[in-house]
Amino acid sequence: MELIPILPHFHAALNLASALLLFAAFQAIRRGDAVTHRQRMAGALIVSAIFLVSYLTYHAAVGNVKFAGTGWVRPVYFTLLITHVALAVVSLPMIFLTVRRAPWRLVTTSDAHRRIARLTWPVWMYVSVSGLVVYAMAFHLYPPTP
């Protein structure tokens, strides 16, 4: 079984997992549960790293996938795609900085971590959710022609 054709679906599953983990981590820290927050964020980081490696592998093998939609949906799709990709690129150093500033002892808090996390989390969440929308549009609503 060739893996390349199923990778877009795998990427969508990873984006969904990332979004769910990010949401669960947000809920945990709002409850003051730093242990659960750290576990969920570590999960989101791992899932996102797997996504990045798989995504780059897929596009190295396939190149660009032509969007099959026509008319008014094309500028909508490409606007979403451009913001998704741009924020994905921007989010990477933000995520590294946020992790670096995280308190490594659970009894402490870090104002520097909290400040950057308030910017990083919504960007990371947007990238995860918009990745799902891009996938749905490119592979289900307007599937590529063989």
TrEMBL record:
Keywords for the protein's UniProt record, in alphabetical order: Membrane, Transmembrane, Transmembrane helix
Family matches, as Pfam families: DUF420
The keyword Membrane appears for this protein: yes
InterPro entries (alphabetical): DUF420
Record field: transmembrane: 6-29, 41-58, 78-99, 119-142
Tree of life domain: Bacteria
Keyword Membrane applies: yes
Name used for this protein in its record: DUF420 domain-containing protein
